[in-house]
TrEMBL record:
It comes from the Bacteria. Residues 24-275 form the EAL domain. This is Cyclic di-GMP phosphodiesterase Gmr.
C-alpha cells in the first residue's frame, strides 16, 4: 500500500523506505570505521591551462573502498559523512594526504581540496590546515580550498571567518559548482576567490546547443575577469567542448578529456612527463 494518497509517480512503498533506511544505517556503520581501517585513498584529477594545456593543478577526490559495500561513490558517502560529523576527521585526513602528495611533485603545481560546510564550522579548522601544511612542508600558496556556495547559506559568517583565516595563511579559495544550488551573485562579494569553477551542467548544456548555458558561461567568464578571478570549466569530456570553452575565454579546464581522477603515483608521473597528458581518456 502506498504510504500516502496523491504521491503521484514518486510514491514510495513502506518496505522500500525501510530498506533505504537500513542501507544507510549499514553504510554509516562501515563509514565510522573506514578511516582507522585505512579504506580511503585520494585520486588526483588534472586541471590544465586552457591555452597552453599545461597542468596547473590537481583536484584531490576522495575514494572509499569498503570491504562490505565495495566502491562507494562520494555522491553517496560524503552527504552521509556530513550528516554524521564524520566529514571532520575524514576531511582532515584528505587535507594531510593531499598536501603530502603535492610536496613530492617535481613541479610547483597546486593541489585543490574539497571542504564541506561542516568542516568550516569547526573552530579549529584553520589549525587542521596548518598541521597539514607543517607535516608536509607544502608552501601555503600551493594549497587551494574548494567550497560551494552552500557554505555561505547557514551560519555563513562562521564559514566566512574560517575562510579568511585560510586566506591569511596564504592559501587560495575556489568557488566550486558555480551556478548550481543556492546561487546568488552576492556570494562573490564574500571573499576574494582565486577561481570560479563553472559547473559541468553548463558545459554539457552549452555543448548540446543550449543558448542559455552558453550565455551563462559567457557572463561568468566576463564577471570573473572583472573581479580578477580565474575560471575553471568542469566536466570537459570532448575536444569540441575543450575548443568551445577555450573560445569562451575560460582560464582553466578540468575533465575526462584531459584526464580522469588518477592514482597519486600516476599524477606525479604525469607532472614529470607532461606529454603523457591524456586527451585520449575522453569518455
Ligand atoms: P566536485 O568537487 O565538483 O568534483 C568534480 C566531480 O566531477 C568528481 O566526481 C569528478 O570525478 C567528476 N568529473 C571530473 N571530470 C568529469 C568529466 O569530464 N565528466 C564527468 N561526468 N564527471 C567528471 P567525484 O569524484 O565522484 O566527486 C563528487 C563530489 O564529491 C565532488 O564534486 C565533491 O563535491 C565531493 N567530494 C569528493 N571528494 C571530497 C572530499 O575529499 N571532501 C569533500 N568534502 N567532498 C568531496
Ligand atoms: Mg571540487
Ligand atoms: Mg565541482
Ligand atoms: Mg561538481
Amino acid at each position: 500500500r502506498a504510504k500516502d494518497e496523491g504521491g503521484g509517480e514518486h510514491c514510495v512503498f513502506e518496505p522500500e523506505l525501510h530498506a533505504m533506511a537500513e542501507e544507510r544505517r549499514q553504510l554509516e556503520t562501515s563509514l565510522r570505521h573506514a578511516l582507522e581501517r585505512e579504506e580511503f585513498k585520494i585520486n588526483l584529477q588534472p586541471v590544465v591551462d586552457a591555452n597552453s594545456e599545461a597542468v596547473v593543478s590537481f583536484e584531490a577526490l576522495l575514494r572509499w573502498h569498503s570491504p562490505e559495500h565495495g566502491f562507494v561513490s562520494p555522491a553517496k558517502f560524503i552527504p552521509l559523512a556530513e550528516d554524521t560529523g564524520l566529514v571532520v576527521p575524514i576531511g582532515a585526513w584528505v587535507l594531510e594526504e593531499a598536501c603530502r602528495q603535492a610536496a613530492t611533485w617535481p613541479v610547483d603545481a597546486k593541489v585543490a581540496v574539497n571542504v564541506s560546510a561542516e568542516q568550516l564550522m569547526e573552530s579549529d579548522f584553520a589549525e587542521t590546515v596548518v598541521r597539514a601544511l607543517d607535516l608536509s612542508k607544502l608552501p601555503p600558496r600551493r594549497l587551494e580550498v574548494e567550497v560551494t556556495e552552500s557554505v555561505f547559506v547557514r551560519d555563513g559568517h562562521i564559514a566566512k571567518a574560517t575562510l579568511e583565516e585560510i586566506l591569511a595563511l596564504g592559501c587560495s579559495i575556489a568557488l566550486d559548482d558555480f551556478g548550481t544550488g543556492y546561487s546568488s551573485l552576492g556570494y562573490l562579494r564574500e571573499l576574494p576567490f582565486s577561481t570560479i569553477k563553472v559547473d559541468r551542467s553548463f558545459v554539457q548544456g552549452a555543448s548540446q546547443g543550449s543558448r542559455e548555458s552558453l550565455a551563462i558561461i559567457n557572463a561568468v567568464v566576463a564577471m570573473a575577469s572583472s573581479l580578477e578571478m580565474s575560471t575553471t570549466a568542469e566536466g570537459v569530456e570532448t575536444p569540441a567542448e575543450a575548443k568551445m570553452i577555450r573560445d569562451l575565454g575560460c582560464t582553466k579546464i578540468q575533465g575526462y578529456y584531459y584526464g580522469r581522477p588518477m592514482p597519486v603515483d600516476e599524477a606525479r608521473a604525469l607532472l614529470a612527463n607532461p606529454r603523457s597528458l591524456a586527451k585520449r581518456d575522453a569518455a
